[in-house]
Target: Gamma-glutamyl phosphate reductase
Amino acid sequence: MSIAEQIRQIAVEARQASLVMARLSTAAKNDMLVRMADALAGDAARVIAENGKDLESGRRKGLSAAMLDRLMLDDKRIAAIAAALREVAALPDPVGEITGMRKRPNDLMVGKMRIPLGVIGIIYEARPNVTADAAALCLKAGNAVILRGGSEAIHSNLAIAAILTRVMADLNIPPAALAVLPFTEREGVLEMLKQEESIDLIIPRGGESLIRFVSENSRIPVIKHYKGVCHVFVDATADFDKAEKIVVNAKVQRPGVCNALETLLIHKDVAAAFIPRIAATLEGLQVELRGDEAFRRYAPSATPATEEDWHAEYLELILACRVVDDMDAAIDHINRYGSLHTEAIVTSDYGRAQRFIREVNSSCVLVNASTRFADGGQLGLGAEIGISTTKLHSFGPMGLEDLTTTKFIVYGDGQVRV
Amino acid sequence: MSIAEQIRQIAVEARQASLVMARLSTAAKNDMLVRMADALAGDAARVIAENGKDLESGRRKGLSAAMLDRLMLDDKRIAAIAAALREVAALPDPVGEITGMRKRPNDLMVGKMRIPLGVIGIIYEARPNVTADAAALCLKAGNAVILRGGSEAIHSNLAIAAILTRVMADLNIPPAALAVLPFTEREGVLEMLKQEESIDLIIPRGGESLIRFVSENSRIPVIKHYKGVCHVFVDATADFDKAEKIVVNAKVQRPGVCNALETLLIHKDVAAAFIPRIAATLEGLQVELRGDEAFRRYAPSATPATEEDWHAEYLELILACRVVDDMDAAIDHINRYGSLHTEAIVTSDYGRAQRFIREVNSSCVLVNASTRFADGGQLGLGAEIGISTTKLHSFGPMGLEDLTTTKFIVYGDGQVRV
Model:
């Protein structure tokens, strides 16, 4: 069989299996996930041996030490993967939830019931833990899942999948509900993106080029995560201690992630008082500052910011800084340069806090808190399957519920339409 | 300017205007809609004159009498359009609703707030009332809207839009938030579908070929409405009076619409008792029956059904009929041949009713009620912008809320991530 035929068959079988998944009880799904965790922990040696093949070929291909570290599995990391499976088992099941049940004038009872999406395709890069994590979330939400990992981790991914699907087979759950594509040619991705009859949603997890490639070539809806150009606006009424703590945390605690701070906006009324202080603190933490003219008046060591800096997602210890006349100017800047990811205001003014919450329509809007909280775990979703920066279906960090949809349910007693 | 440049400009201006729309108060939006209704009613003569040009050119092009009737506007129909605008004004505003507000262990308050999608593109066919209806729903939900109607109605659509945007301008609301494309070349649709930087959602309303064209050529997410192959399953415990009333209503009341019945499934235990009765009733109403062998045993006048009949969306007085062994067989048939639109069971058995509701994952699932209730107005949405038969973002009849999304909102007091 050609790659195209194989992928088509995997997708059709996943669609069939999704019908079984959708009917599984919460208890059956949780039991499956706990057994998967046990099986992974029990078979760690086999996974580590297969992971060794990936590491060996990674070294031959000259992967960086950081890449090899992301790829590497040992007993501790496998225990962490097993623990994550148990955590997903412990999450509430979104499927079957009924909301908005109401009586219509003709006595029909109408509401909505939450149901699985069907078949979800995940296209991801190096880390093999995604294989188990993403599979667990999709299966818990009653879906089938097709995983296409990176070529660097193919042996690890297949070893993990073999253990998980063996548990499913033992429980009479169709193993086709969890498929890892056994080849890593780009042709495989393209074919996967054509299976719109069988796959309901594609989630790409990786760099911007992967995400662009997937969304430009997919006939299936894609939930995209583009860049995070996150802003903090320090208002005229900000508490400087809180503002400093929040800016430092947002920029420095983990600069390489999408919810890290990239542009600092400062109200002109507090420019003279706040800028020297925050500039000294940030430079003391090795942060390179790039400011507009008004900012550099109070922080002469900052380099001049260019138009490009307002668009930049640095993902390193660089911060663009700008003085704004008022909150309208801050919001205009965010609307013009932002990426709809995450923005925070630091303020003591009730009205401005409420206005910022209301008028800034990024996926996560915070008052007096670090942008680093824009994360499924931190926001209370239990686990995160990704972050959407486009508005359809999901916007912001996505949890189990985002892997479901709703149908209308209607209880009648013989009603007909007049 | 080329068509491509003009459309790009319309889209960019709509994006800008959407930022203003998103901040309008509910009162301001409602006031705008009521004034639009008044202006339309007051300027009916002008709309009717422009509509006359469309009718004239339609007659020259040889449009059918039915098409010309759909196109025609008179005082009564314009009054109905104005009434629909007032109804949208009276609907609750979904924007700003806050749900799921919860305190996290670190005392952050986290919830979700409903916000507009941004810019919505509607691509539709003949009826000029859609221009006002769709615009009203999009604007009420705080969005900008770009409308691309059919060439048959271009004068009517532009006349309606001119009246509505004049009201917006009078109220200092940017008229760019309501754009009707002033040309009807297909090139215009293609260009519109490329404006993914400015348009958030495309909703095609029309025949299957329009919908396929749009979804195959769009870089913007599309909410699709494919066909409605709706089923009624008459269970072994069905009350025959209710079953007959429901089957007749679902098939006969308005056979040309997507929520009309296309396939009747009958439990084998009641085949002998129910089929002669329902066949006589339906044939008395001029319905052509196409049955499997078991069905025709009790309804010899029915013609033999072929595999194609199980897939058919007739949209006329034809009904495919099949006897099934049990509920599993009914559900299997629906999974195999259905279009995920609407299915109903007629039963007196509590357990089967609940199982049907739980296990049939079409967009609308009913117990003891006609499939014809799968409609936004009937289900209580207030007004309907379309019906989605795909599962992302919306599934089933779509109302105002489906023209919005949610963002995370977080109230803190200086919290940072540890």
Remarks:
- The mean pLDDT of chain A is 96.
- Chain A touches chain B through 69 residues (CB under 8 Å).
- The radius of gyration of chain A is 24 Å.
- The first strand of chain A starts at residue 98 and ends at 103.
